[in-house]
Design brief:
Layout lengths: L10 E4 L18 H15 L12 H26 L8 H11 L10 E8 L7 E3 L3 E7 L2 E9 L12 E3 L5 E9 L1 E8 L7 E3 L11 E4 L2 E2 L1 E2 L11 E6 L5 E4 L14 E8 L13 E6 L8 E7 L12 H14 L6 H9 L2 E2 L3 E11 L7 E9 L5 E2 L3 H14 L5 E6 L1 E14 L6 H15 L11 E2 H8 L7 E8 L2 E3 L1 E2 L5 E15 L3
Parallel strand pairs: 12-13, 20-22, 23-28
Antiparallel strand pairs: 1-19, 2-7, 2-17, 3-6, 4-5, 5-7, 8-15, 9-14, 10-11, 10-15, 13-14, 16-17, 18-19, 19-20, 20-21, 23-25, 24-27, 25-26
Helix pairs in contact: 1-2, 3-4, 4-5
Length: about 525
């Protein structure tokens, strides 16, 4: 994607997150069985001391008290639990988080399939085009998990063409324009009932984002977010449950057409997705046999991934929904403020080009640029890693932003800057703890990883030594820490990035210095 905003800017204003108060779970303290029993016994002693004083554990009265305390304990716990489940800040069940999302029109992000580029190579040139039908299956192992990649030809934008053959041209040894998508293609056939709002649940899950295709009596229908009002169009909606099983929903002949009774509904979709497909380059090197039609021969073809698997995403967790839903609700799916642009772009995902990991909206400090928004974006690699967003992802984001922005706004999509930092941690500790070095190092690594999670960082956020000291302070074994950060300019104890820079750790070094306490 060409840079449509080539010059540097001085920001007048920048999108900032809204600080909202923390909402904590309702407190169950002093409502348990023993507390209830104790309070009831004290109440009876105070109010009915002359009528009842038999508090021996084996007495009938104490049994009735304990029965009441048990019921009160159970009811109190369930009341608090139910109250917590109806608020997005305190919900603990994923199914309930999906219900709350549905109430406000928010759709949690389904899984995204990892993708990588492949070569298909033959040993000898042929005098005809070798056609390899999609989706060509390649099974492999990621860690200890069996996974499948399906191969498709790529278009000029780097997206797969799902219904065309992979071709090694006549006179050529290789085709390097092949995309491998992790996951498995499925096809199911249903018969329409002709009912209003007919819903079909697909048999396999999790269903990969934007992979569903629906044909009714051989005619392709369009997937929409909402049915077109007062229009009987060939449309359907897709909804997901908490396990990312998919439901296909048809209209009512006022908004969306009802498939006529007995119509054949053919659904193709893909299942899988997730970070399990983020394999390293060159990890797949296998050979298959292709039998070209109209030719009585078998052609061995070697397949190899020459890029790493990337963009795989497991789907939103309950923590993701808790964070995203309030942000989405403030936007009302319209980009008006700088925070709206930031929120909507960070929740944007492409089925084949990944997701936007971090963004910030900047207003220029020029009087003639009041309607120009510079949107700095970076692609998401995983929970802690960012990278430059692909040109196609930025192009798709531009199309999306154009649909929801203010008419007078002009948005420039620009690449954000990653400021890589080496973190050096010197741990001063008594010699007695030398045998626990690995355990202590693991505790430190866990806290450092949580500290640098993407959800905790944004453009322009300052990295300070004291912040790391705080998160390590609950590890009681070390006597003290000395922490420094190394960047291109040298070593320092505080790093202040520019407005369009975000700090990410390059390497974390933990060194132990053993002391003798006198």
């Amino acid at each position: 994607m060409s840079n449509n905003c080539p010059f540097d800017i001085t920001p007048y204003a920048q999108s900032q997150e809204i600080n909202k108060p923390n909402i904590f779970n309702l407190n169950y303290t002093n409502q348990d069985f023993w507390s209830m029993k104790t309070r009831l016994v004290d109440f009876i002693r105070q109010e009915f001391s002359e009528d009842f004083n038999d508090f021996v554990e084996s007495s009938l009265g104490v049994m009735l008290i304990e029965n009441w305390a048990f019921l009160a304990d159970t009811l109190s716990f369930k009341m608090d639990q139910i109250a917590n489940e109806i608020f997005i800040d305190t919900v603990t069940e994923l199914e309930n988080a999906f219900r709350l999302s549905k109430l406000v029109g928010f759709t949690p992000q389904p899984p995204i399939a990892s993708r990588c580029l492949f070569t298909a190579t033959i040993n000898n040139v042929l005098n005809f085009d070798l056609q390899i039908p999609p989706a060509y299956d390649i099974d492999t192992i990621s860690g200890s998990t069996p996974i499948r990649f399906e191969l498709f030809p790529a278009d000029s934008n780097g997206n797969p063409i799902l219904d065309q053959d992979i071709i090694i041209p006549a006179g050529s040894f290789v085709n390097a324009n092949i995309i491998g998508l992790e996951g498995r293609s499925r096809t199911e056939l249903f018969s329409s009932t002709g009912e209003i709002g007919q819903s079909i649940q697909l048999s396999y899950s999790p269903v990969i984002y934007d992979s569903i295709r629906v044909d009714v009596d051989g005619v392709r229908w369009n997937q929409v977010d909402y049915f077109t009002d007062s229009q009987r169009r060939r449309e359907y909606r897709v909804e997901f449950d908490s396990s990312y099983s998919a439901y296909i929903i048809f209209g009512n002949n006022r908004g969306g057409l009802i498939p006529s009774q007995g119509s054949a509904i053919n659904v193709t979709y893909r299942t899988g997705g997730g970070t399990v497909g983020n394999i390293i380059a060159g990890s797949i090197n296998t050979q298959g046999i292709v039998n070209p039609p109209n030719y009585d021969l078998s052609v061995p073809v070697s397949f190899s991934n020459y890029t790493k698997g990337e963009y795989g995403y497991n789907g939103d967790t309950i923590e993701d929904i808790r964070r995203k839903l309030p942000q989405y609700l403030r936007t009302q799916n319209r980009a008006v403020t700088g925070l709206d642009y930031k929120t909507l772009s960070e929740q944007f995902a492409s089925p084949y080009q990944g997701q936007i990991g971090k963004s910030t909206a900047v207003l220029r400090n020029y009087g003639c640029a009041a309607n120009i928004i510079d949107l700095y974006v970076l692609g998401r690699i995983d929970d802690s890693t960012l990278g430059v967003a692909s040109d196609q992802l930025k192009a798709e984001l531009t199309t999306y932003i154009d649909q929801i922005k203010m008419l007078t706004d002009h948005v420039c999509i620009r690449d954000g800057d990653i400021l890589y930092v080496d973190v050096n941690i010197d741990v001063f500790i008594d010699r007695f703890y030398r045998k626990f070095e690995e355990e202590i190092k693991e505790k430190i690594a866990r806290r450092i990883n949580n500290f640098f999670l993407l959800v905790n960082w944004d453009y322009g956020k300052i990295l300070r030594e004291i912040d790391l000291m705080k998160i390590l302070s609950d590890i009681s074994d070390p006597n003290r820490y000395e922490i420094s950060f190394v960047i291109d300019q040298g070593s320092t104890n505080i790093i202040t990035p520019k407005f369009n820079q975000i700090i990410r750790p390059s390497s974390v070094y933990v060194n132990f210095q053993y002391e003798t306490n006198l």
